[in-house]
Amino acid sequence: MRTIHVDEITKNIKEMCIEANHVLSKDMDYALKCAWKNEKSELGKQILGQLQENMEIAAKEMIPICQDTGLAVVFLAHWP
Predict the structure, then answer these.
(1) Is the model's pTM score more than 0.85?
(2) How far apart, in Å, are the Cα atoms of 6 and each of 2, 10, 15, 59?
(3) How far is 34 from 66, CA to CA, in rounded Å?
(4) CA-to-CA distance for 5 and 12, rounded, in angstroms?
(5) How far is CA 44 from CA 9, 38, 41, in A?
(6) Phi, psi of 57 (to 5 degrees)
(7) What's the pLDDT at 57?
(8) Does residue 80 carry a pLDDT above 70?
(9) CA dihedral sign, ordered 38, 43, 44, 47
(10) Buried (b) or exposed (e) across 3-25, using 16+ Cβ within 10 A?
(11) Distance CA 12, CA 8 (A)
(12) CA Rg, the chain, in Å?
């Protein structure tokens, strides 16, 4: 069995939460771009374009993609 210091776990969880809230995965970015390209309605294209712009701003300025992203709850057990 391997021992992992709690600081390392805390650091990694923090980084994952920040990334999940600020950066869109490559497959989702690609899907949004394809959806915009294939969208027929002008309103749909406008909304998809705004979503893409919001993603770029979130990544560049390190603000959440969406302010309603929820809250991560982590339960950690410690065994002696």
Answers:
(1) no
(2) 13, 6, 14, 28
(3) 21
(4) 11
(5) 41, 10, 5
(6) -65, -45
(7) 87
(8) no
(9) positive
(10) eeeeeeeeeeeeeeeeeebbebe
(11) 6
(12) 18
Task: Provide the H-helix boundaries in the chain.
Answer: 6-22, 26-38, 42-61
Q: What is the pLDDT of residue 12?
A: 92
Per-residue pLDDT tens digits for 20-50 = 888 878 898 899 999 999 999 999 999 999 9
Please, are residues 32 and 55 in contact by the beta-carbon 8 Å criterion? Answer: yes
| pLDDT (0 to 100) of residue 41 | 96
Nearest to 79 by CA among 28, 8, 4, 21: 4
